[in-house]
């Protein structure tokens, strides 16, 4: 049996049946199996490709199978998805090879009795591809965009309503681009120039980020485990837009900072670097197992000033009333600005889940606000482009809290951009060419502010 395809089917099964994250399940399988470099690449291509195509592949499958997709035996369902993915999206695989290997997989993976069914479905797809032509023409524009860009239709419809059709089309295209590895130089140990030189010497193709002074985009690199500056704590993987947040918080050496939703610690460790590791940062998260990630990152980067605490951010205010110089709320959010980094994410989101987020975000922000000292700073950020989770939450908060003043967030961005005068900074993938991100800085008034 074809080892690469069998591995891909098993990973797809983990993702779809057991809720595993595609990148985690893939990394685990590749660690456990002794596959050659070519097979590893092929498995990766198959898994990411089929996971990303998700609902679109099932739409195609429904053209050739009359029973509901959810009623097909789970391994057979994954074998069919993988077969269709190769037939419709992988030019380099001949259709006959896609069919034959799928039949072999069914025989070898304990579903031999259904190998005839697999054969019939896939051969019909090869013979009659026109059955899977996406609907087009008047009245089908949104459905067509969703199918061809491999996004859920409800999401595309929502983006078309919010941003317009053309922007929605660009957003979808952005999500399908290959994300570039972005790293932040750990200024406690090196600087950007030195890191660029080190990466170049190691054969990586790297260039400075236009958004963050410590940011580097690494276009060509080998395995991350072999990237010495990463392993030895001279840099941290972090998206460029996410690097802006610590600058907007503006932590100073010696201060007490609270990072309410901190795991895995990208922004916490960045703030520690900006403070020259002098002062105290409390990194809280509701999940204890995630705190370990913050501790590992801090240790790798050589940081002493971070302490972790398992705490629901909605209780931060009560425990740390008016104690912090600055508080960051990097809120749990829908993540709709970073879909290109997680091929399975777009198919996991639900409208109900997203609709419930603003109330949670507001509750966290309200509690976090109590922990800010008079005269201190409160920053709210998300990696989404949802108005209700961003501007909506901040407006509701400010209406209830006249003791906070909205600052011109754009003034705190580290490099000149067209957002320099924005009260709230919203980066949009289709306009800014970065991950979607929202940042807003507020100040808690003290006595002198009130008199003024
Ligand atoms: C956007 S992520 C944070 C990313 C992190 N700031 C970084 O830069 O690496 C949001 C985090 O909030 C945590 N979280 C969710 N609900 C929470 C709550 N009620 N209180 C505290 N943390 C929470 C999640 O576990 C997740 O780690």
TrEMBL record:
S-adenosyl-L-methionine binds at residues 261-267, 285, 312, 330. The active site is at 383 (nucleophile). InterPro entries: MeTrfase_RsmB-F_NOP2_cat (IPR049560), MeTrfase_RsmB-F_NOP2_dom (IPR001678), NusB-like_sf (IPR035926), NusB_RsmB_TIM44 (IPR006027), RCMT (IPR023267), rRNA_ssu_MeTfrase_B (IPR004573), RsmB-like_ferredoxin (IPR054728), SAM-dependent_MTases_sf (IPR029063). It comes from the Bacteria. GO terms for biological process: regulation of DNA-templated transcription. It is an enzyme of class 2 (transferase). GO terms for molecular function: RNA binding; rRNA methyltransferase activity. It is found in: Cytoplasm. Keywords: Cytoplasm, Methyltransferase, RNA-binding, rRNA processing, S-adenosyl-L-methionine, Transferase. Residues 171-445 form the SAM-dependent MTase RsmB/NOP-type domain. Pfam families: Methyltr_RsmB-F (PF01189), NusB (PF01029), RsmF-B_ferredox (PF22458). CDD domains: AdoMet_MTases (cd02440). It catalyses: cytidine(967) in 16S rRNA + S-adenosyl-L-methionine = 5-methylcytidine(967) in 16S rRNA + S-adenosyl-L-homocysteine + H(+). PROSITE patterns: SAM_MT_RSMB_NOP. Its EC number is 2.1.1.176. NCBIfam families: PRK14902.1, rsmB. Specifically methylates the cytosine at position 967 (m5C967) of 16S rRNA. Belongs to the class I-like SAM-binding methyltransferase superfamily. RsmB/NOP family. This is 16S rRNA (cytosine(967)-C(5))-methyltransferase. It comes from Mitsuokella multacida DSM 20544. The gene is sun.
